[in-house]
């Protein structure tokens, strides 16, 4: 018998604990809080409907988030609930590991003029203000 594949996912937006889409992670195992390396920017896409992160060569910040272990079925469900244009990509964490995160195309963020909230301490802090 083989083990089913597990997906380690970095959540940094509306599916965080206490946020409205946390139910999209139903049954996923919480692994703990995490922080990316300072190589990303975070924006409030579509007037704060969801976050958009992307990697930058310079001027990045560390993005706070949470790590979850998901089965293949849970991972596929999570992907099916993500907004249009988001895509899975590896994010580098400050502990030297990587995880899958949902990125948003920088080009679309620029075209939309969505506000940069990178320096506000993460999505949950932004939503509290």
Roughly how many Å is the radius of gyration?
Answer: 14 Å
Would you list the SSEs in sequence order as H and E?
A: EEEEEHEEHH
How many domains? The number is: 1
Helix tally? 3
CATH domain class name: Alpha Beta
CATH superfamily: Gamma-glutamyl cyclotransferase-like
Question: What composes the largest sheet?
Answer: 3 strands, antiparallel
Q: Percent of residues in helical segments?
A: 10-25%
Query: Are there runs of 5+ residues with pLDDT below 50, and where?
Result: none
- The rough form would be described as globular
How many distinct beta strands?
7
CATH architecture name = Roll
Calculate the terminal CA-CA distance, rounded to whole Å: 49 Å
SSE-based structural type: alpha+beta
CATH topology name, in short, is: Hypothetical upf0131 protein ytfp
Strand content: 25-35%
Strand order of the largest sheet: 1-5-2
TL;DR?
By secondary structure, the chain is α+β, with helices and mostly antiparallel strands. Helices cover 18% and strands 35% of the residues.
Structural commentary:
By secondary structure, the chain is of the alpha+beta class. The chain has one domain: Gamma-glutamyl cyclotransferase-like (Hypothetical upf0131 protein ytfp). Helix content is 18%, strand content 35%. It contains 3 helices and 7 strands; from the N terminus they run βββββαββαα. The protein has a 3-stranded antiparallel sheet. A hairpin with a 4-residue loop joins strand 3 and strand 4. The chain is globular, with a radius of gyration of 14 Å.
